[in-house]
Amino acid sequence: MKDSSAPEKLPVHVGLIMDGNGRWAKKRRMPRSFGHNAGMNAMIKLAEHAQSLGVKYLTVYTLSTENLSRPKEELEALFGLFRSYFSKNVKKLYKQNAAVKIVGDLSPLPDDVVKLLKDGESGSPVGAEFTLIFAINYGSRPEILRAVNLAVERGEKVDEKSFGALLFTSGVPDPDLIIRTGGEIRLSNFLTYQAAYAELYFTDVLFPDFDGKEFDKAIADYAKRDRRFGKV
Ligand code: IPE
Ligand code: IPE
Ligand code: MG
After folding, report:
1. Do 12 and 56 form a contact (C-beta atoms < 8 A)?
2. Is 67 a catalytic residue?
C-alpha cells in the first residue's frame, strides 16, 4: 500500500482543462457567459486550494486556439472576465506570494487585455512559492511550430533541453498530472508535448462544480499511481 500523504506523492505541476462551463449554464437555462463566470470563480478558489496543498504550478486552460472561433459575444464575455481578474483578483494572488504567467499567443486579443495580462505577469512577486499559469489562445501544435521556427531562424539544432526553452512553458517543469473536467476524454491541444509522461485524470464533473474536494480526489488518485517512466 502506497502512502498517499507522502510529499513526493504530491504533483509539482498540475494542468487543468476547465471544461463544461457551457453545459453547466445550459442546465440552469442561463447563457454560456453565466457558466464562464461561475468557472472563473471556481478557478480562483482552486488556485488558492492548490497552493495551500503545496502544489507549485497550476496551469489553467482558459482559452484554446480553437476557441477563438467561438461567437463574438462569448469571446467578449471571456475577455471581460480576463479584464476583471487581471485588474482586481491578481493583487490578492500576489499578497499570497503567488505569481502569474501566461502561455499562448496573445496577438489576436484586444490591446487592453494584452496589456493587463502582461502587467499581471510582470507585477508578480519574485521567488513566489506558487505560479498560476494561464493558457490563453494556447494550442500545443502552434506552440511547437513556433519553437521549431525559432530554432530554424537561429540555425540551431535542438535537443530536449534547448527545445523546451523555446516553448511558452520555458522554465516550468512538465506537468505531473492533467485533470480534465466535463466528461470528455481528450487533451484538445493542451500541453501535448509537455504531458508526455503526465498522469491523466478525467471526471464528468462540470467545471463550475469542480471544488477543492474534487481536486483532492484527483490528487488522491494521482498518489496511488505508479510512475515508472519506462523502468521496471
Ligand atoms: C470550457 O467550457 C471553457 C472554455 C472553453 C472557454 P466550455 O465553454 O467548453 O463548456 P461546454 O463544453 O460547452 O460545456
Ligand atoms: C478545451 O475545451 C479548451 C478549454 C477548456 C479552454 P473545449 O470545450 O474547447 O474542447 P473540445 O472542443 O470539446 O475538444
Ligand atoms: Mg467544452
Report:
1. yes
2. yes
Least confident of 4-18, 27-41, 158-172, 200-214: 4-18
Would you tell me how many other CB atoms lie within 10 Å of the CB of residue 165? 13
Dihedral angle, C-alpha 21, 26, 30, 33, nearest 10 °: 30
Closest ligand relative to 139 C-alpha: 2
Annotated catalytic residue 211: no
Q: Ligand 3 mean position to 25 CA, how many Å?
A: 12
Comparing C-alpha atoms, which of 102, 75, 73 is closest to residue 86? 102
Dihedral Cα 125, 126, 127, 129, nearest 10 deg? 10
**Helix (H) or strand (E) run with residue 102 in it:** strand 98-103
The structure's pTM equals 0.96
And the C-alpha cell for 102?
A: 501566461
Establish whether residue 217 lines the binding site of ligand 1, counting it when its CB lies within 6 angstroms of any ligand atom: no
